[in-house]
Amino acid sequence: MKSISYRELKKSEISESLFANFNRYQNVKKCWRKENGEWILKDIAFTEQWSSDEYKVLIECLQNTVKTGGTVFGAFSDNVLVGFASIESQLWGSQKEYIQLSSIHTSYECRGMGIGKKLFSLASTKAKEMGAKKLYISAHSSEESQAFYKALGCVEALEYNKKLVDEEPYDCQLEYRLLI
Fold first, then answer.
1. Pick from 97, 148, 93: nearest CA to 127
2. For residue range 89-101, what is the model confidence (pLDDT) as tens digits?
């Protein structure tokens, strides 16, 4: 694979053709669940493979992110999208210190190459520029996803976003303190 380039995406670029070669596949074996105040790794197995309908919803969400002042980053190899991340524009929380990292994904065949880590770094830098002190992540509870976030220094969020918890009750609510 050639070198990876990264850049902010314009709303007009976020389309079905952008995701034509993107592979959101994950074979999940274990997931984290909070039971009686303790985090437990449980045998919960399923395969996640986004459908064309899920990509259509994703495209609408990412376009809305840009339209409302947020940012979407793309990672490209030979002009083909291999990763993306998005942050929303609204500061929230009791101290107005959180900005949501609403998505971060690397195409299946490109995982383990540092793309996600670089996208996370770009999102963190942008969030600081927008006045945030913490990234908020409603993150997939799979063992692999949680290992990724933990390796970056994410911890359980001090404040939970009720709307996001209601939308995805099995997600792990995480935060990442932005170094000022």
1. 97
2. 999 999 999 999 9
Domain chopping of the chain, boundaries: 5-177
Say what the pTM is: 0.94
- Report pLDDT digits (tens) over 33-52: 999 989 999 999 999 999 99
The CATH classification number of 5-177 equals: 3.40.630.30
How would you write the chain as a 3-class SS string? Answer: CCCCEEEECCHHHCCHHHHCCCCCEEEEEEEEEEECCEEEEEEEEEEEECCHHHHHHHHHHHHHHHHCCCEEEEEEECCEEEEEEEECCCCECCCCCEEEEEEEEECHHHCCCCHHHHHHHHHHHHHHHCCCCEEEEEECCEHHHHHHHHHHCCEECCCCCHHHHHHCCCCEEEEEECCC
| Alpha carbon distances (Å) from 161 to 34, 49, 61, 89, 168 | 16, 26, 18, 15, 11
